[in-house]
Write a structure and sequence with these properties.
- The complex is a heterodimer.
- By secondary structure, chain A is α/β, with parallel strands linked by helices.
- Chain A has helices at residues 43-60, 82-92, 105-110, 146-155, and strands at residues 13-15, 21-23, 33-38, 65-70, 97-100, 114-115, 117-121, 127-131, 170-171.
- Chain B is of the alpha+beta class.
- Chain B has one domain (3-99).
- In chain B, strand 3 (55-58) and strand 4 (61-62) form a beta hairpin.
- The radius of gyration of chain B is 13 Å and the shape is globular.
- Chain B starts with a strand and ends with a helix.
- Classes of the chains: A alpha/beta, B alpha+beta.
- At the A-B interface, helix 1 and strand 9 of A face strand 6 of B.
Chain lengths: 175, 100
């Protein structure tokens, strides 16, 4: 079951590639929190992850936080192991927290189907936008920047122009 | 000439790859039947040496030899485009070169 608009963010406490454990409460002061299902092995994620870092950098001064979570089964997809996550984050210089949901419990609570897939929460941690980062994996062809538009709206106390879009990407690799 | 498109339905990229392949074939005036082969299980992926979806083989040769040896898996395949960008479908140039 996927979270619905208006639902509260389920809590999580997950290890990050930075060696710390990160919880939902830790982001308590952020006026906007984007939780994005992600992974290492997916070409769609790889096409978008640079934009994920850019978004975190561009919105950091306004307090918004972006968190990526990898829930894929690393036994079948060893590229998605925690060690490989650390290596990729370091190599690519991720500007966002990258967390490992090894037992897939957090994915079970949020209900993503794709990577990448965005769940954007407001200051009270209610879901206000769910879907894609923008409308093209090819950054040269992007027309509508869904997540940026939703963040701008949220930070200016407006309704996001789009609240639900279709995420395009790899399937979550459930056990 | 024998052209095969191997795909896994869990990755959304194969229709776009098939359309690109059809466009290149049409542009070259090649009327070659396309054999579509759906890979459904990890066992099939192993048996077919399927490195990810989509995989295009022309006369048995992978159009992207560099990626052909990746571990067989039900996954979206990674293609590197000219300029280093990552894509879930091959570059048009890769198909054209494989047909040359």
């Amino acid at each position: 079951m996927t979270l619905q608009l208006g639902n509260e963010a389920p809590p999580f406490s997950l290890p990050g590639v930075d060696g710390s454990v990160h919880s939902l409460d830790e982001y308590g002061n952020a006026p906007a929190l984007a939780v994005i299902w992600s992974c290492n092995h997916c070409p769609y994620v790889q096409a978008w992850e640079g934009r994920m870092s850019e978004i975190q950098r561009d919105y950091e001064s306004r307090g918004a936080r972006l968190v990526a979570i990898n829930s894929n089964d690393a036994a079948r997809y060893p590229e998605d192991s925690f060690e490989e996550m650390k290596a990729r984050a370091s190599r690519e210089g991720f500007a966002f927290d990258y967390l490992h949901d090894e037992d897939q419990a957090v994915a079970g609570a949020y209900g993503p189907s794709r990577t990448p897939e965005v769940f954007l929460f407001d200051a009270s941690r209610r879901l206000v936008y769910h879907g894609a980062i923008d409308d093209s994996r090819d950054e040269r062809a992007v027309g509508t920047t869904y997540l940026r538009d939703a963040l701008d709206a949220l930070l200016e106390d407006r309704e996001p122009p789009a609240v639900q879009t279709e995420p395009v990407g790899c399937s979550i690799k459930w056990r | 000439m024998r052209i095969e498109l191997l795909y896994w339905a869990g990755c959304p990229s194969y229709p776009e790859a098939e359309a690109l392949l059809a466009d290149v074939l049409s542009e070259r005036g090649l009327d070659v039947p396309l054999r579509r082969l759906e890979v459904r299980t990890h066992e099939e992926a192993e048996r077919l040496g399927f490195p990810g979806s989509p995989t295009i083989r022309i006369d048995g040769r992978d159009i992207d030899p560099a990626g052909a040896g990746a571990r067989p898996a039900l996954t979206c395949r990674i293609y590197l485009l000219p300029g280093g960008r990552v894509s879930p479908i091959p570059a048009r140039e890769q198909i054209e070169e494989a047909l040359a």
